[in-house]
Q: What sequence folds into this?
């Protein structure tokens, strides 16, 4: 990335301070941190969207290495962070203002469940990593389970490298990554847009009907009488055969 562009973005972030921009930089920070992992040994995937029968799940980062599968959730929050593994809500405190947010461990647990569906043959626990940006302070975050880390972005690589046992072959790593890339739903926005367009078309049609305009050709609708009573039909019949 050109240096000038980077400076521009830093200024933009300072000015905007919007959650969107903050989130973007949080993820950028994790991407940057993960670059320290040797890409010969690790496959690193960002922003993967998966879907099963009931829901769509977006996962920030997935690292697949000889030493296992690591699922990373990014939280770019400032202030003091309080939370425990079991509680439904965590708390962010900035001076006297307190805000609650969903327990990110539970959130990432959902991501892992979705990933387990993708790799039913993988018999080891996937490692859950919750990464907070360095401008937060992890005050009281109680963790009891293994294969679970709540840490600052700067600690991600060390946490991943602390797993020494070889679990996956090079071929398995490549196959898992390829499968995820293939399953990744890239056109989620396009699909949502598509649904929106259908809705709008239906609404437009309704409006035209109530204004007695044929939605097919734009000519006026007229009331006709048939075998089964009255109905609305296009005045351009038989050229247009629209009825309602
Ligand atoms: Zn018509």
A:
């Amino acid at each position: 990335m050109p240096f000038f562009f980077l400076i521009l973005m830093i200024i933009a972030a300072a000015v905007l301070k919007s959650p969107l921009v903050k989130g973007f930089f949080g993820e950028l920070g994790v991407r940057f941190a993960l670059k320290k992992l040797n890409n010969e040994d690790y496959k690193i995937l960002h922003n993967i969207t998966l879907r099963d029968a009931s829901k769509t799940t977006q996962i920030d980062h997935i690292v697949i290495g000889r030493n296992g599968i690591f699922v990373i959730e990014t939280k770019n929050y400032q202030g003091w962070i309080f939370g425990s593994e079991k509680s439904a809500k965590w708390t962010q405190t900035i001076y006297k203002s307190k805000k609650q947010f969903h327990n990110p461990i539970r959130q990432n647990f959902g991501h892992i469940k979705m990933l387990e569906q993708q790799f039913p043959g993988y018999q080891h626990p996937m490692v859950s990593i919750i990464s907070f940006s360095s401008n937060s302070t992890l005050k009281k975050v109680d963790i009891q389970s293994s294969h679970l880390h709540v840490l600052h972005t700067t600690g991600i690589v060390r946490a991943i490298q602390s797993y020494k046992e070889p679990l996956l072959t090079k071929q398995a790593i490549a196959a898992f990554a390829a499968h995820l890339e293939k399953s990744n739903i890239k056109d989620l926005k396009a699909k949502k847009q598509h649904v929106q367009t259908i809705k709008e078309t239906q609404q437009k049609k309704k409006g035209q009907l109530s204004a007695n305009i044929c939605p097919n050709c734009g000519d006026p609708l007229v009331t006709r009488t048939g075998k089964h009573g009255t109905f609305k039909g296009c005045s351009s019949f038989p050229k247009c055969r629209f009825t309602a």
